[in-house]
Design goal:
Blueprint (H helix, E strand, L loop, with lengths): L2 E7 L6 H8 L4 E6 L6 H7 L3 E4 L7 H10 L7 E4 L4 E4 L2 H10 L4 E7 L11 E4 L2 E3 L3 E4 L5 E4 L5 E10 L10 H11 L4 H13 L3 H13 L6 H14 L4 H11 L4 H13 L3 H12 L18 H12 L3 H14 L4 H11 L1
Parallel strand pairs: 1-2, 1-4, 2-3, 6-11
Antiparallel strand pairs: 4-8, 5-11, 6-7, 9-10
Length: 347
């Protein structure tokens, strides 16, 4: 089995050594540099990493990644697309060996996108950026995906890949590139959701609401968790119809904790203790966390217990309030509001 780890880079010198140390068991390491003015290339070459210089104008991520992929040797079995702010953990090569033995073309893995302040894992989902060398290509100007026209064999490994981003790095190009994605493929439901979400993040709520509704109207938008997420965000864009959208979100994907936690919080904010407690308890009945990018760490941590505790207290259910208050503190033991609430329940 031959493995290549590849990436694109622009002024990423602070990540090069850690990236190298996590991936050095690969047979081939490649950085496609897009014009760094810092020591990215110098450091990479000092570690023996293969470096190619590429130019992409106008900029788009899929073209850059395809150029990097094209620069890999032909005899590679598995390609790992590993951004410089990501690292491979543990015996990742041993895990890939298992996938290789069963003939997988697309090994899947556990991807931790974010970490909580205490260092515990935050958003975690099943990653998909390890692929066979041939027959694959990158698609979309941003939020690009690795895709193929061939039949795939997915195999779930215990490989861990962690993301440690630079919080100061600008992502201002994402919005225009997402708009370009929609121009190129207006029926792509994934990018419709992403574009609406990006408008939302920029505070452009009317445009966000319009694009979320367009997403929901697309015949290709059949993945219920993403439809539910669009409805949850529509609730924020159209506060006059907030309860309507939150309830629709729950009805769309009743197996998702995130939908029930959102509606529970809404009822709590409006002093509607019975539906707040009912919704929080419905969320807590869901115990299997799906490995999807829409996971919200708070929904799988302190939040549903906190809502249940406050609502229980106001309903005169003191023992239940104490129980859920303690459960919330198990996830966030230093949270001052939760600690003060516990004093309140015990008083």
């Amino acid at each position: 089995m031959k493995v290549a780890v590849y990436t694109i880079a622009l002024n990423e010198e602070q990540f090069v050594e850690k990236w190298y140390n996590s991936a050095k068991e690969a047979d081939y390491l490649l950085i496609a540099d897009t014009g760094s003015s810092d020591r990215t290339v110098e450091l990479a070459e000092s570690f023996g990493i293969n470096v190619v210089t590429i130019s992409v104008n106008p900029w788009r991520f899929d073209v850059a990644r395809n150029k990097a992929l094209e620069a890999l040797p032909d005899d590679i079995d598995y390609c790992i697309s590993l951004d410089l702010d990501e690292v491979l953990e543990g015996d990742w090569r041993g895990e890939l060996e298992k996938a290789y033995e069963v003939g997988s073309t697309r090994p899947r893995y556990n991807y931790t996108w974010s970490f909580n302040p205490d260092g515990s894992k935050g958003l975690t989902f099943a990653g998909d950026k390890i692929h066979a060398r041939h027959g694959y290509y990158w698609k979309h100007p941003v939020h690009e995906v690795i895709t193929t026209d061939k039949e795939e064999y997915h195999y779930y490994t215990n490989l861990e890949l962690h993301h440690h981003p630079d919080p100061t790095k600008s992502r201002s190009q994402y919005l225009p590139l997402l708009e370009l994605s929609i121009q190129e493929d207006p029926n792509d439901d994934r990018n419709a959701h992403y574009l609406a979400r990006e408008y939302y993040f920029h505070g452009r709520y009317e445009e966000a609401a319009r694009e979320f509704k367009r997403h929901l109207s697309l015949p290709t938008a059949t993945w219920k968790p993403e439809r539910s997420a669009s409805m949850n965000m529509l609730a924020e864009c159209e506060p006059q119809d907030k309860e309507y959208w939150l309830l629709r979100s729950c009805a769309e994907a009743p197996e998702r904790r995130e939908a029930w936690v959102a509606v529970a919080q809404y009822y709590l904010d409006n002093n509607r203790w019975v539906p707040a407690l009912t919704s929080a308890m419905r969320a807590l009945e869901i115990t299997e966390r799906p490995m999807e990018y829409l996971n919200q760490p708070d929904a799988w941590g302190w939040k549903p217990h906190d809502v249940a505790a406050v609502a229980s207290y106001y309903l005169g259910m003191r023992e239940q309030a104490i129980k859920h208050g303690n459960d919330a503190l198990q996830f966030a033991p230093e949270d001052q509001r939760l600690l003060k609430n516990m004093e309140w329940y015990l008083s």
